[in-house]
């Protein structure tokens, strides 16, 4: 743990927020269309209809805002998932959020001929939320009730199930692949801020509740018996945590598609900085998640310029070596 005192953690969080704002600025300024900080200010203070001002206002600003929001959601959801399952490799992916949302999108395109990005948002959000409900139900079956190992296994099974169904449907009707490929890759390119309006009323309260139950999560991670001995209603805490994961991970995948590894990487980095206290892990994870998505998105613009690769590909490139490292570290520890 690098930051031990409360004062250092507060200062670190302030610095992190400043870095997040800087990354938002970089996302607005950098890209194929050559712009500068001065151009960005002029685009909002003295809009003249030029190509540069249009790009900044209509493309890059929404992209930066959506990237930050998606990163915040995935960072918190990943930290919550790892705390709940006591699995250092857990993330929203492991409970099938991405797979469930993807399946619902493919079904909507193939059966109902949906092709609206706005409609995709709601369909994916509902699909992700229902997937979490199913996983929680399956993980609760049995005398012990909901346990970390059962939740992890149920999530992995549901993710594999939905992924298989999705691949099967796309194999039957390859024409649908072209319509959903841009969404399945995971990207914040071409998204509109309006896509956030429908889910923000759910995301904001979920984030606020996360900070309020952080101390209860701390107790739960020590052990369920200890938590019950201290009078905690562990079942209620788990249910609230599951709802938060469903809303945050579902909202992120609904807007940007299935972006992997952010929920795995961020909590580990954050815990190395502030320790295991989730009263600090959650806000730090939110900031770090936003920074990671924004930096990955900026880098994705330059890899094969003038073309761009989806930010989901960049996070996979970053996250895969990290995942292998954590898996090997866990194997050695065991």
TrEMBL record:
Name by which UniProt lists this protein: Iron complex transport system permease protein
Keyword Transmembrane attached: yes
Subcellular localization: Cell membrane
Keywords of the record: Cell membrane, Membrane, Transmembrane, Transmembrane helix, Transport
Lineage: Bacteria, Bacillati, Bacillota, Bacilli, Bacillales
Provenance organism: Priestia aryabhattai (Bacillus aryabhattai)
Primary site of residence: membrane
GO molecular function: transmembrane transporter activity
Entry similarity comment: Belongs to the binding-protein-dependent transport system permease family. FecCD subfamily.
Membrane-spanning residues: 12-32, 64-83, 95-114, 120-139, 151-172, 195-214, 235-261, 281-304, 311-328
């Amino acid at each position: 743990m690098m930051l031990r005192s409360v004062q250092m953690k507060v200062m670190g969080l302030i610095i992190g927020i400043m870095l997040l704002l800087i990354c938002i600025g970089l996302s607005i300024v950098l890209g194929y269309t050559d712009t500068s900080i001065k151009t960005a200010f002029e685009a909002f203070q003295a809009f003249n209809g030029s190509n540069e001002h249009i790009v900044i206002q209509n493309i890059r600003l929404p992209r930066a805002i959506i990237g930050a929001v998606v990163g915040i959601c995935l960072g918190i959801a990943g930290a919550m998932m790892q705390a709940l399952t006591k699995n250092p490799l857990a993330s929203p992916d492991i409970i099938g959020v991405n797979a469930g949302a993807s399946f619902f999108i493919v079904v909507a395109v193939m059966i109902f001929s949906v092709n609206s990005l706005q409609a995709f948002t709601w369909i994916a959000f509902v699909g992700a939320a229902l997937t979490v409900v199913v996983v929680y139900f399956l993980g609760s079956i049995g005398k012990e009730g909901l346990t970390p190992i059962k939740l992890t296994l149920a999530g992995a099974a549901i993710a594999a199930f939905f992924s298989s169904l999705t691949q099967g449907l796309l194999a039957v009707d390859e024409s649908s692949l072209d319509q959903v490929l841009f969404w399945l890759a995971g990207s914040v390119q071409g998204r509109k801020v309006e896509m956030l309006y429908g889910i923000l009323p759910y995301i904001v309260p979920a984030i606020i509740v996360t900070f309020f139950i952080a101390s209860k999560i701390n107790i739960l991670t020590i052990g369920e018996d200890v938590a019950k001995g201290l009078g905690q209603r562990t079942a209620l805490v788990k249910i609230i945590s599951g709802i938060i994961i469903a809303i945050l991970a579902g909202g992120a995948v609904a807007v940007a598609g299935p972006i992997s590894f952010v929920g795995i990487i961020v909590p580990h980095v954050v815990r190395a900085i502030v320790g295991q206290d989730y009263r600090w892990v959650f806000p730090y994870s939110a900031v770090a998640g936003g920074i990671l998505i924004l930096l990955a998105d900026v880098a994705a613009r330059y890899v094969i310029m003038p073309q761009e690769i989806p930010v989901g590909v960049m996070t996979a490139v970053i996250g895969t070596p990290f995942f292998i490292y954590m898996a090997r570290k866990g194997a050695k520890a065991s």
